[in-house]
Amino acid sequence: MAWVSPGPSQVHPALGRRELLGVAGVAGLWALPLDPALASGGSTAGKYSTIPSAKRRFFGRVRQGIFQFLEMGKAIEKGDLKDPAVDSFYAKSIIKQIGGESMKNCAFSACVTKEKRTSRWLDFKTASDLLGSAFRYDASDVNDYLPQVRIIRAYAKKVEKLQIAITAGNVQEAQTLYTKAKLDLSKYTPLVELLPLDSEDYTHDWETLPKVWCQGTFCV
Asked: 213 φ, ψ to 5°?
């Protein structure tokens, strides 16, 4: 079973009220009425409003990506580049769109969907970049210059080189690249209010669907 959210005792104390709200929402309480101030983001309202929304949308995907990256690392450190955990991280095993289904509002008989797939790595790459870009504290901040964005993009370059080394069977290069990428990732997590890599957060699977909060008929 995929985990949805850590319990309150696992929430980092520095995250405060905003993260606790996220835990409540992720636990399945999004149908309950929220205080208007909390519904708007509380302390993150206004210029910080992108942060709680991004956390609801991307935290699950990023945590799952970190979990599988760390699982892959165990095999790489042993020099086993053919371990299933390595293939699971890079293989396009996630179905984004089911194929063969009729397309709505299409006048042609051959209007059916084509199957689209992605990998855990590509999904993690996208989600972690979007999460980093959302952690802006001023409307004038430029995404490309945000420290967490620069770090996660440097990480992504190393992980792409790592895939090449794995395909080539170069164990030493794969081990070196993995160590460097892991260091980048350890710098990224605190900048987006995620727990350190040695946290229990990354010892199990996560639900990757976005979380929704509702107040009456208004949902975010």
From this structure: -110, 135
**Rg from Cα positions in the chain:** 19
In eight-state DSSP terms, residue 189 is G
What distance lies between CA 56 and its chain's CA centroid? 10
The whole-model pTM stands at: 0.71
Mean pLDDT across 173-179: 98
pLDDT tens digit sequence for 128-168 = 999 999 998 888 889 999 999 999 999 999 999 999 999 99
Contacts of 56 (CB under 8 A, 6+ apart): 22, 25, 26, 210, 211, 212, 213, 220
Dist CA 113 CA 49 (whole Å): 35
Report the run of H or E that residue 96 belongs to, with start and end.
Answer: strand 94-97
List all residues 6 or more positions away from 220 whose beta carbon is below 8 Å from its beta carbon.
39, 53, 56, 212, 213
- Element (DSSP H or E) covering residue 158: helix 147-168
